[in-house]
Amino acid sequence: MTKSQLIQMIAEQHNLSKQNAELAVSLVLGEIVKAMERGERVELRGFGVFEVRHRQSRQARNPKTGDSVAVSEKRVPFFKAGKEMRERVDH
């Protein structure tokens, strides 16, 4: 499902205009991203947890040449599905 498909489905199921549904989806996703930019953990009960994980710098290999390459440290987004979501998907 794409973002536009999600917006369309929310608009139809809740009798909203497409613009209002798009605004709602964009606001929710935007706030999740802003919280993660600040290094905060976002927990949505029954859905899952969004958090930022820190990756240390390391030595890696270029798969084409086999040369050693330095990979700098970075922060990466991480999502862990909640128990309810895992159970519903696994049905």
From TrEMBL:
GO cellular component labels: cytosol
InterPro entries linked: Hist_DNA-bd (IPR000119), Histone-like_DNA-bd_CS (IPR020816), IHF-like_DNA-bd_dom_sf (IPR010992)
One Pfam family named in its UniProt record: Bac_DNA_binding
Domain of life, per lineage: Bacteria
Gene3D superfamilies: IHF-like DNA-binding proteins
GO MF term (any one): structural constituent of chromatin
Keywords for the protein's UniProt record, in alphabetical order: DNA-binding
Family as reported in the entry's similarity comment: Belongs to the bacterial histone-like protein family.
Name of the protein in question: Histone family protein DNA-binding protein
Species of the source: Magnetococcus marinus (strain ATCC BAA-1437 / JCM 17883 / MC-1)
Lineage of origin: Bacteria, Pseudomonadati, Pseudomonadota, Magnetococcia, Magnetococcales
